[in-house]
Specification:
Largest sheet: none
Shape: globular
Low-confidence stretches: none
CATH class of the largest domain: Mainly Alpha
Helix content: over 70%
Strand content: under 5%
Number of strands: 0
Mean pLDDT: 89
Radius of gyration: 19 Å
Distance between the termini: 49 Å
Oligomer: single chain
Number of domains: 2
């Protein structure tokens, strides 16, 4: 048995199962009725939990769709940070984006969630809010990779690269949705970045 592997408790597994069931129920209702027309009360009733319990797992209706962005952000930071020193900042960020794009959900589910986010302004706003948090958290990692000493104000070079890379990711995601998931999202991302850096 691997001593370094974190132990997952029965409570953790139970919580993960409940969260997955609530998300599954919410997405099915959103697909059937539309995001705006679906209420928290309906989701809770259909999932077999109280509204109070649902809010213990998710802080808001938007977090039913966008909640995983926090965990994905942590995975992104860890992936970028562990890239070899000779890997460029752009390639380190690219590796992070590829890692988070292949984690947790099937491509079909990611397409469903991404389509929902881009089609609904409240979800889009929540998504952008979380992306801005990613940007702030990535600054010291990118500054270190650029050999810049972190200070109280982010370095404009680090901030500019991060903002451009995240914007490229969003553009690639939107194009991927418009292609109905048939295009290669990594290729789309590379094309956008190449245009920016060209």
């Amino acid at each position: 048995m691997d001593a370094d592997r974190p132990t997952t408790t029965l409570w953790d597994r139970s919580r993960q199962a409940v969260v997955a069931e609530i998300v599954e129920t919410a997405l099915a209702l959103f697909a059937e009725q539309g995001y705006e027309a679906t209420t928290i009360a309906q989701i809770a009733k259909q999932a077999g939990v109280s509204q109070r319990s649902l809010f213990r797992y998710f802080g808001s209706k938007e977090d039913l769709v966008c909640g995983a962005q926090d965990e994905l952000g942590e995975l992104l930071f860890a992936t970028v940070e562990k890239q070899p020193a000779d890997v460029s900042v752009w390639d380190a960020l690219r590796a992070g984006f590829i890692t988070i794009s292949t984690t947790g959900y099937t491509a079909e589910r990611v397409l469903e969630i991404t389509t929902l986010i881009f089609a609904n302004p409240p979800l889009r706003a929540r998504y952008l809010e979380k992306r801005l948090a990613w940007q702030v958290s990535l600054v010291p990692i990118v500054e270190a990779r650029l050999g810049i000493e972190s200070g109280p104000v982010p370095d404009p070079r680090a901030l500019g690269i991060i903002a451009a890379a995240l914007a490229s990711l969003d553009v690639a995601s939107q194009l991927w949705v418009r292609h109905g998931g048939d295009a290669d999202p990594v290729r789309l991302y590379d094309e956008v970045v190449a245009a920016i850096r060209g």
